Prior knowledge:
Elements: H1 2-67, H2 69-73, H3 118-122, H4 125-191, H5 195-207, E1 219-224, E2 229-235, E3 245-251, E4 256-261, H6 264-289, E5 295-301, E6 304-305, E7 312-313, E8 316-323, H7 330-333, H8 338-344, E9 348-349, H9 365-368, E10 372-373, H10 393-405, E11 410-414, E12 424-427, E13 436-442, H11 450-463, E14 467-472, H12 478-487, E15 490-493, H13 495-506
Parallel strand pairs: 2-5, 13-14, 14-15
Antiparallel strand pairs: 1-2, 3-4, 5-8, 6-7, 8-9, 10-11, 11-12, 12-13
Helix pairs in contact: 4-5, 6-8, 11-12
Amino acid sequence: MARRRVSQSDRQRQAAAQARNAEKERKAREREVREAEKERKRQHLISRSQKVETDNARLEAAVRQLRGILAGGIARSAKFDILATRRTFSAPSLDLGEYGTASSAPVWHEFAPRAPGAVSKFFGGQARYEDKRAWAERSFQSATAEHTDREMRRLREVARLRRAHAEQVASGAEETRRHNRAVEALATRLRDRDKAAVEKYLRRVLQVTPLPSAFPRKVELTFSPRTEQVVVQVELPPRSIVPTVASYRYLPTKDEIRPVQRAPKETASLYRDIISQVALLFVRDLFDSDPKLATVAFNGHVHALNPGTGQKEYPCIVSLNVERADFPPNANLRKVDPAQCVRHLNAIVSAHPYELEPIEPILDFDLSKYSFIEGFDAVSTLDSRPDLMEMSPTNFEHLVRQIFVAQGCEGWNTEQSNDDGVDAVIARRTPLMGGLSIVQAKRWSKVVGISHVRELAGAMEEKRAGWGILVTTSWFTAKCWDKAREHGRMELIDGDRLVYLIKEHLAKDVLIGIADRPKPKGNRAAPGPL
Length: 530
């Protein structure tokens, strides 16, 4: 009985010890879970903090790059050696491949049967040998013929490959010579200050001006050999290039990374600084690359959507015209404040460039593409000679210009040696008729064919004119009217319409002395003011 009570007491003690051990293990597991959760939270906090640091470092690097456009750009020379683009031709080696090595010709000893011995001859071996030898000779002849045929085919293929290789070498050498002649001709024309050559050279220079990869690369320019001036129109980066976030903060209590917005004033100031740097860098590269340039005019535009009209626009927000002597050297450019330097150069900068408030460029790029001459009063000559066919072609071109000027437009006549198919340029400064119109004036007595309408369309495309106007003292074929209507941005003025416009806007009664001029048709009635 006592032994039973002792045994029961032992079991109770064992159960209590097991319970205590289980409790210890439970508490240990709970401590491990708490420690693991604590470590997880600590690692999460470190991860989030590191992300904030990385994002802030990326932001600072982006802003540092934007502020260092000018300093980085002027650290290298913008000069471009045209002659360095000449090529050296290296003829490729001739690869004959499998046809380069002739196969071995068959040899008789590989076909000849073994001669019979004395005993073999006695038992008919000689006859068998003769049969084998005849068969071997036929096989040898067949193999020799096949080898000869195969070798002839190989030699023909080798000859073909050699001809093809010689043609390739000759073509490559000629292409290299042609390229080098073009490069040397361009270098000569560049030294002679040929307009097209200088423009091509300067475009190449500006194509490699170092800008951040996100910046647009649209550049247009025109060069005047007479004044040694280049006018360049550049697409500036959009406002979105400026990071609107100044930094990031981590809020542990909310486990949230929150952006800190850049102050609007700072954002606008940074954008002004960026466009000022771009303007200065482009002007510097043009002067640095071409020591003969006297003046650089820069117009910076940006694509935008007008929130009031919903229309896409391309406003100019910075414009300057600077002579070489007034532009700071590299040593000074490294120290300047870009926005203040641009103002010092008497640039016109939008009062609110970040808001894309437009300005009027100092030099109109579209007009700079033409070579104009001083206007002449051709109307006064009509008092004594009212017949338009008696006017000189030059006076007739001036008369056409005066018709448009009388309607409130601005107009200029171009130099005859540099007109590129354009006799006059007309500008109407209104929201609906913005841009330029090019005019071709033909004092002709014969019909004007469709080829001249196509010529006008080509001139419009080349000059990027908004409208094209073809004026003649004679008349147009039906296809001309159809082509103009199909084009949509072209106006044709024949002799009858021209007489009407001169009467309406210049108050002159004129005639056109063409004996066989067709009578006007109803659908060619004179229009109202253009």
